[in-house]
Amino acid sequence: MKKITAVMAATGLLVMANSALAGKDSGLYIGASLASSSYDVVNSGGDLDETDTSYKVFGGYNFGLVPFFDIAAEVSYYDLGAISVDKKDYSSTALAASALGAFNFGPFGVFAKYGFAQLDSDISDVDGTEDAYGIGARFQIGSIALRAEYELFDLADDVDLDYASLGASWTF
User: In terms of CB atoms within 10 Å, which end of the chain has fewer, N or C?
Assistant: First the structure.
C-alpha cells in the first residue's frame, strides 16, 4: 500500500510540474500579428483621431533562464497604417528592437516590453528613433503561442500611436 501511495504521489508531482511549465518554450521564435493603429494628432488646426488596419512581423529569442519568468529579445517590423489629412494619405513604418519580460502561469502568460523604434513616415517630424513600449498576454501550447498586445509609440511631440494587435508565434 505504501508503494502505491508513493507512486501516485510521484506521478501527481510530475503532472503538476509539467503543467506548471506548459507553454514555456525557450529558443528562437518568429511570428506575425494583425493590428489596429490609432493615430492621435494634436496641432494648431485641432485634433485628429484616425484608425487604420496594419500588421507586424517579429522574431526573437526567449532565454528561458528562470522557471515561471521569461526574458526575451525581439526585433519587429511594423506597417503602422496610414492617416488621411486634407485628402492626402500619410503612411508610417517602423523597425523596433525590444526587451521582453514575461510571467508564466501554465499555458497563460503576461508580458511587458520596452525598446526603441526607428520610424519612417510621411508625417512631418516623425522620422527618427523613438521609445516604444507595450503590454500583452499569450496562450501557449508547445511551440505555438497566440498573442494579444497593446503598444504605444511616441511618434512626435504632437503625434501618438496606439497599436492593438492579435497574432501568433512559433518557437523552433
Answer: N
Q: Give pLDDT, residue 9.
A: 55
Instruction: Measure the CA–CA gap between 41 and 79, rounded to whole angstroms.
Output: 18
**Residue 6, phi then psi, degrees to nearest 5:** -65, -40
Give 37's pLDDT tier (boundaries 50, 70, 90).
very high
DSSP 62: E
Helix (H), strand (E) at residue 13? helix 2-20
Q: How far apart are CA 76 and CA 116, in angstroms?
A: 10
Q: pLDDT class for 20, splitting at 50, 70, 90?
A: very low
C-alpha cell at 52: 487604420
Give the Cα separation of 34 and 17 in Å (integer): 34
